[in-house]
Amino acid sequence: MNQPSQLSDKAIKNAIPEKKKRPKLTMKQSKYLFVYICLLLPIIFYLGIRIIPTLYTFNIGFREWNILSPEKPFVGLENYATLFNDEVFRKSLVNTAIFIVIGVIGQVVIGLFIALLLQRINRFVGFFRVIYFIPYVTSIVAVSWVFRWLFMNNGFMNEMLVTIGIPPQLFLNSPNQAIFVIIGTMIWQALGFQMVIFLAGLENIPSTFYEAADVDGASPFQKLKMITIPLLNPTIVFSVVIGSINFIQVSFTQVVNMSVDSAGGPLHSTLTIVVYIYQLAFRQYSMGLASAATVVLFLFILALTIFQMKVLTKKFDY
Amino acid sequence: MKKRTGLTIVYLLLITGSIAMIFPFVWMVSTSLKTAIDVYSLSIIPENPTFANYIAIFQGSPFLKWFINSLIIAVITTLSVAFFDTLVGYIIAKFHFIGKTIIFITILSTLMVPTEMLIIPWYLMSSELGWTDSYWGLLFPGLMTGFGVFLMRQFMESIPNDILDAARVDGMGEFKIFLKVAIPQVWPAISALCIFSFLSNWNAFLWPLIVSHSEEVFTLPVGLSFLASGEFNTKWELIMAGSTITALPLILVFFLLQRYIIKGIVLTGMK
Fold this sequence. Notes:
Chain A is an all-alpha fold.
């Protein structure tokens, strides 16, 4: 039934001279047409929303650009000089480094540990996996306020400390402790993601390796050091790179919602570079300084990524 | 015998960890059900449980509106990302054309640039074009992602050219081939991309904070933060009720879809 009707359709189309042109588009031409039509909007998007604004940021960074004044004179590298002479900016760089180093090591080590524990059991694996994963799919702002509440002066944590005989701590009010409370919250929220990635990585290690090690009488620690970690290396690199970028970017939400003054306090002790950029741009309206700071951030991330790729992939290269 | 005690320790550690994962949520919900007088009491089960905090939030603030705003923005950006990233990934993986390398490198290079570097030009652009305080202003930065294009290209490359050519010989149009032949082959990757996109847009804080000035266009994270540090300051029972409303829908969706979500994350992590 179908076949003849299609044929006759074609016959009709051929009979109409106007429509004749369409089928004459060769396969190659129709491919090109498809490609360029489909790429039109994406090209506009990537140029207009991504590339040109990126270049424009460099331009703003070289100017004294106060949003309230109409003149934006070119000042060369002056913004960069101002930034590096600015104690608060240097402090924000140091804090960002603390966030990354402790946060990433913490989440990778604990995430791997949980994955290794889960690998040893054969019941309730799915259950535990879901439990550990819940924080990852929860709103960051909500989590920040829950932890702020837990770590309040008269909140749950201090009440618990007092119960077991330890004096209450200042936590988020303390310039020495606040940053670690925030990092801890971020690790807590990212563990599930790390665990899932490591579990998948562990599954890819052939069990024959472990069997061979058992025959040789290797201890669990030796097996971890000689088999698991080297073979897991690509996964670890992935986790570290993703984790670092996450810590730089997501920390804004946590710091704004958890620091006592919503601005990186007390005494700038939790101020990260992204929070400082926000303040420069949208509290002090000095777009020039803020843009220069984003350029520094960009170079920071670039250097960090290259460094991690080089160091981490080399270390265990077989 | 030794093995058994080892296993017991493993379970004990995992259970302790689970409590640490779950307790903050229990405390959140518990506080949200307490009265202002009981809020500092340490009992997990509220003495005088009440829904008054939830009622107060929905009546006294545009929380429902913020919820809807967040949902609209997350859904639109996710649909856009799923469609365009998949399409561009498909084209780059399966077609040869002039300018392909340049386009792909351009898109990849945007991955190197952190969003923070773009917020200032985006803000200036939005003010100039009147995009601030609108849905469009909130969602335009997230409509397409370099990450998605890269991911989908990886998956699209594994589709054999033969089936695409077979469809062409059958007279299928190019767009139809994309929809009916290519997409079904990479469905798991698309759903993973959707999950990532939805999560990151639902959680987005920095850009919505900058681009929205009036309360009507706040998203849920901005609204919650605004209330918690302003009107609700130190009224923890109200802040926790707000946090519960913000956190719970996503957790429920996760429980429903957890199999796909975890699989999707593994899938993208491996590529």
